[in-house]
Amino acid sequence: MLRPCIGRFQHVVTPLLPPLSACPISRPPPLRNMSEAKKEEAKGLTDAEAREACGEPDASTKDFIFQQTMFRIKDPRVSLDFYTRVLGMRLLKKLDFPSMKFSLFFMGFEKAEDIPSDPADCTAWTFSRKATLELTHNWGTENDPEQSYHNGNKPPQGFGHIGLAVPDVYKACERFKELKVPFVKEPDAGKMKGLAFIQDPDGYWIEILSPKPMAAIGK
User: Among 30, 83, 177, 218, fewest CB within 10 Å belongs to which?
Assistant: First the structure.
Protein backbone atom coordinates (compact mmCIF):
# COMPACT_ATOMS: atom_id res chain seq x y z
CA MET A 1 0.00 0.00 0.00
CA LEU A 2 1.42 3.33 -1.00
CA ARG A 3 1.37 6.17 1.46
CA PRO A 4 1.80 9.82 0.58
CA CYS A 5 5.32 10.97 1.28
CA ILE A 6 4.73 14.41 2.71
CA GLY A 7 8.15 14.86 4.17
CA ARG A 8 9.98 15.03 0.87
CA PHE A 9 8.28 18.34 0.02
CA GLN A 10 8.94 20.04 3.36
CA HIS A 11 12.20 21.62 2.28
CA VAL A 12 11.20 22.73 -1.19
CA VAL A 13 11.83 26.47 -1.47
CA THR A 14 9.48 28.49 -3.65
CA PRO A 15 11.41 31.14 -5.58
CA LEU A 16 10.36 34.71 -4.89
CA LEU A 17 8.88 36.57 -7.87
CA PRO A 18 9.76 40.22 -8.40
CA PRO A 19 6.95 42.65 -7.70
CA LEU A 20 4.75 43.52 -10.66
CA SER A 21 5.97 47.09 -10.62
CA ALA A 22 9.49 45.87 -11.45
CA CYS A 23 8.40 43.95 -14.53
CA PRO A 24 8.63 45.92 -17.76
CA ILE A 25 5.30 45.84 -19.58
CA SER A 26 5.25 46.11 -23.34
CA ARG A 27 2.39 48.34 -24.44
CA PRO A 28 1.18 48.99 -27.98
CA PRO A 29 1.71 52.53 -29.25
CA PRO A 30 -1.21 54.90 -28.63
CA LEU A 31 -3.95 54.73 -31.23
CA ARG A 32 -3.46 58.42 -32.00
CA ASN A 33 0.13 57.79 -33.13
CA MET A 34 -0.91 54.80 -35.21
CA SER A 35 -3.58 56.89 -36.86
CA GLU A 36 -1.10 59.68 -37.58
CA ALA A 37 1.31 57.18 -39.11
CA LYS A 38 -1.39 55.90 -41.42
CA LYS A 39 -2.22 59.45 -42.46
CA GLU A 40 1.43 60.08 -43.29
CA GLU A 41 1.48 56.97 -45.46
CA ALA A 42 -1.76 57.90 -47.24
CA LYS A 43 -1.50 59.53 -50.64
CA GLY A 44 -4.01 61.07 -53.01
CA LEU A 45 -4.48 60.17 -56.66
CA THR A 46 -2.00 61.44 -59.19
CA ASP A 47 -3.36 63.42 -62.13
CA ALA A 48 -2.92 60.36 -64.33
CA GLU A 49 -4.75 58.13 -61.84
CA ALA A 50 -7.62 60.60 -61.62
CA ARG A 51 -7.97 60.71 -65.40
CA GLU A 52 -7.80 56.93 -65.59
CA ALA A 53 -10.59 56.60 -63.00
CA CYS A 54 -12.94 58.75 -65.11
CA GLY A 55 -15.09 57.28 -67.83
CA GLU A 56 -16.08 59.07 -71.01
CA PRO A 57 -19.62 60.51 -70.57
CA ASP A 58 -22.17 58.40 -72.41
CA ALA A 59 -23.86 60.09 -75.35
CA SER A 60 -27.23 59.57 -73.68
CA THR A 61 -26.19 61.96 -70.86
CA LYS A 62 -25.36 64.95 -73.09
CA ASP A 63 -28.45 66.89 -71.95
CA PHE A 64 -28.11 66.12 -68.23
CA ILE A 65 -27.57 69.15 -65.97
CA PHE A 66 -26.78 69.67 -62.30
CA GLN A 67 -30.16 71.07 -61.32
CA GLN A 68 -30.50 71.35 -57.55
CA THR A 69 -29.09 70.95 -54.07
CA MET A 70 -31.58 70.48 -51.23
CA PHE A 71 -31.27 71.96 -47.73
CA ARG A 72 -33.78 71.26 -44.97
CA ILE A 73 -34.58 74.53 -43.22
CA LYS A 74 -36.18 75.29 -39.88
CA ASP A 75 -37.82 78.68 -40.51
CA PRO A 76 -38.66 79.69 -44.10
CA ARG A 77 -39.10 83.36 -43.24
CA VAL A 78 -35.56 83.56 -41.90
CA SER A 79 -34.01 81.48 -44.70
CA LEU A 80 -35.83 83.27 -47.52
CA ASP A 81 -34.67 86.62 -46.18
CA PHE A 82 -31.07 85.39 -45.99
CA TYR A 83 -30.88 83.91 -49.47
CA THR A 84 -32.60 86.87 -51.15
CA ARG A 85 -31.54 89.97 -49.23
CA VAL A 86 -28.09 88.78 -48.13
CA LEU A 87 -26.96 86.56 -51.01
CA GLY A 88 -28.96 88.05 -53.88
CA MET A 89 -30.92 85.00 -55.02
CA ARG A 90 -34.55 85.09 -56.10
CA LEU A 91 -37.44 82.83 -55.21
CA LEU A 92 -38.10 81.03 -58.50
CA LYS A 93 -40.93 78.74 -57.43
CA LYS A 94 -42.80 77.66 -54.29
CA LEU A 95 -44.44 74.24 -54.18
CA ASP A 96 -46.74 73.13 -51.34
CA PHE A 97 -47.67 69.57 -50.36
CA PRO A 98 -50.47 69.90 -47.78
CA SER A 99 -51.12 66.17 -47.42
CA MET A 100 -47.48 65.65 -46.38
CA LYS A 101 -47.17 69.01 -44.62
CA PHE A 102 -44.09 70.41 -46.31
CA SER A 103 -43.16 73.12 -48.81
CA LEU A 104 -40.32 73.57 -51.29
CA PHE A 105 -38.73 76.92 -52.12
CA PHE A 106 -36.51 76.96 -55.21
CA MET A 107 -33.85 79.68 -55.14
CA GLY A 108 -31.52 80.81 -57.90
CA PHE A 109 -29.64 83.64 -59.56
CA GLU A 110 -32.16 84.58 -62.25
CA LYS A 111 -33.64 87.85 -63.52
CA ALA A 112 -37.13 88.67 -62.29
CA GLU A 113 -38.38 89.30 -65.83
CA ASP A 114 -37.32 85.81 -66.91
CA ILE A 115 -39.55 84.01 -64.39
CA PRO A 116 -42.73 82.80 -66.18
CA SER A 117 -46.02 84.08 -64.79
CA ASP A 118 -48.00 80.96 -65.66
CA PRO A 119 -47.73 78.48 -62.72
CA ALA A 120 -47.22 75.37 -64.86
CA ASP A 121 -44.73 77.10 -67.14
CA CYS A 122 -42.89 78.45 -64.11
CA THR A 123 -42.59 74.98 -62.60
CA ALA A 124 -41.16 73.48 -65.78
CA TRP A 125 -38.85 76.47 -66.24
CA THR A 126 -37.60 76.22 -62.65
CA PHE A 127 -36.68 72.58 -63.07
CA SER A 128 -34.70 73.48 -66.20
CA ARG A 129 -32.44 75.97 -64.36
CA LYS A 130 -28.88 75.04 -63.43
CA ALA A 131 -27.61 74.94 -59.86
CA THR A 132 -30.76 75.94 -57.98
CA LEU A 133 -31.08 75.63 -54.22
CA GLU A 134 -34.13 73.74 -52.97
CA LEU A 135 -35.10 74.79 -49.44
CA THR A 136 -37.35 72.20 -47.82
CA HIS A 137 -39.59 73.26 -44.94
CA ASN A 138 -41.40 70.65 -42.88
CA TRP A 139 -44.33 72.57 -41.42
CA GLY A 140 -44.06 73.39 -37.73
CA THR A 141 -40.30 73.09 -37.30
CA GLU A 142 -40.06 76.86 -36.87
CA ASN A 143 -42.04 76.54 -33.62
CA ASP A 144 -39.92 73.74 -32.16
CA PRO A 145 -37.08 75.11 -29.99
CA GLU A 146 -35.32 71.72 -30.06
CA GLN A 147 -35.33 71.43 -33.87
CA SER A 148 -32.03 71.72 -35.72
CA TYR A 149 -30.36 70.11 -38.73
CA HIS A 150 -26.95 68.48 -39.12
CA ASN A 151 -24.83 70.60 -41.47
CA GLY A 152 -22.43 67.80 -42.39
CA ASN A 153 -19.38 69.44 -40.82
CA LYS A 154 -19.84 68.11 -37.31
CA PRO A 155 -19.07 64.45 -36.51
CA PRO A 156 -19.89 62.28 -38.30
CA GLN A 157 -18.80 64.44 -41.21
CA GLY A 158 -20.39 64.07 -44.61
CA PHE A 159 -21.81 66.91 -46.69
CA GLY A 160 -19.49 69.93 -46.73
CA HIS A 161 -20.76 73.13 -48.34
CA ILE A 162 -22.08 74.93 -51.38
CA GLY A 163 -20.04 77.67 -53.05
CA LEU A 164 -20.80 81.09 -54.49
CA ALA A 165 -18.54 82.94 -56.92
CA VAL A 166 -18.41 86.71 -56.37
CA PRO A 167 -16.47 89.51 -58.13
CA ASP A 168 -14.56 90.51 -54.97
CA VAL A 169 -14.36 88.24 -51.92
CA TYR A 170 -13.15 91.00 -49.58
CA LYS A 171 -15.91 93.46 -50.50
CA ALA A 172 -18.53 90.76 -50.23
CA CYS A 173 -17.25 89.76 -46.80
CA GLU A 174 -17.21 93.36 -45.57
CA ARG A 175 -20.91 93.54 -46.38
CA PHE A 176 -21.58 90.16 -44.74
CA LYS A 177 -19.92 91.43 -41.56
CA GLU A 178 -22.12 94.53 -41.59
CA LEU A 179 -25.15 92.23 -41.90
CA LYS A 180 -23.94 90.14 -38.93
CA VAL A 181 -23.51 86.99 -41.01
CA PRO A 182 -21.60 84.32 -39.04
CA PHE A 183 -18.19 83.35 -40.44
CA VAL A 184 -16.53 79.95 -40.32
CA LYS A 185 -13.42 81.36 -42.03
CA GLU A 186 -12.59 84.93 -43.00
CA PRO A 187 -10.67 85.60 -46.25
CA ASP A 188 -7.20 85.88 -44.71
CA ALA A 189 -7.61 83.23 -42.02
CA GLY A 190 -5.99 79.81 -42.29
CA LYS A 191 -3.62 78.55 -44.98
CA MET A 192 -5.89 79.23 -47.96
CA LYS A 193 -6.08 82.98 -48.45
CA GLY A 194 -8.63 84.92 -50.46
CA LEU A 195 -11.65 82.74 -49.84
CA ALA A 196 -14.16 82.62 -47.00
CA PHE A 197 -16.83 80.44 -45.46
CA ILE A 198 -20.04 81.81 -43.99
CA GLN A 199 -23.07 80.08 -42.47
CA ASP A 200 -26.73 80.34 -43.36
CA PRO A 201 -29.45 80.49 -40.65
CA ASP A 202 -29.44 76.68 -40.27
CA GLY A 203 -25.66 76.46 -40.01
CA TYR A 204 -24.94 75.20 -43.53
CA TRP A 205 -21.54 76.33 -44.83
CA ILE A 206 -21.25 78.53 -47.91
CA GLU A 207 -17.89 79.10 -49.56
CA ILE A 208 -17.31 82.59 -50.95
CA LEU A 209 -14.75 82.65 -53.75
CA SER A 210 -13.63 84.69 -56.73
CA PRO A 211 -12.70 82.76 -59.91
CA LYS A 212 -9.48 84.51 -60.97
CA PRO A 213 -7.64 84.30 -57.62
CA MET A 214 -8.52 80.61 -57.48
CA ALA A 215 -6.20 80.07 -60.45
CA ALA A 216 -3.24 80.07 -58.06
CA ILE A 217 -4.54 76.88 -56.45
CA GLY A 218 -4.43 75.01 -59.73
CA LYS A 219 -0.79 75.75 -60.55
Answer: 218
Q: Any residues with CB less than 8 A from the CB of 182 and at least 6 apart, and which? A: 198, 199
Asked if CATH classification 3.30.720.110 holds for the domain at 161-219, the reply, yes or no, is yes
- 67-147: CATH topology: 2,3-Dihydroxybiphenyl 1,2-Dioxygenase; domain 1 (3.10.180)
HSE (side-chain half, CA atoms, 13 Å) at 52: 5
How far is 212 from 120, CA to CA, in rounded Å?
39
Domain boundaries, the chain: 67-147, 161-219
Residues 68 and 106: beta-carbon distance below 8 Å: yes
Residue 168: CA atoms inside 13 Å, Cβ hemisphere, count? 5
Is 161 assigned to a binding site?
yes
Closest CA to 138 of 91, 198, 79, 92: 79
pTM: 0.80
User: 104 near 135, Cβ under 8 Å?
Assistant: yes
- Exactly one of 110, 142, 186, 207 is catalytic; name it: 207
Residue 52 among the catalytic residues: no
Residue 178 known to bind ligand:
no
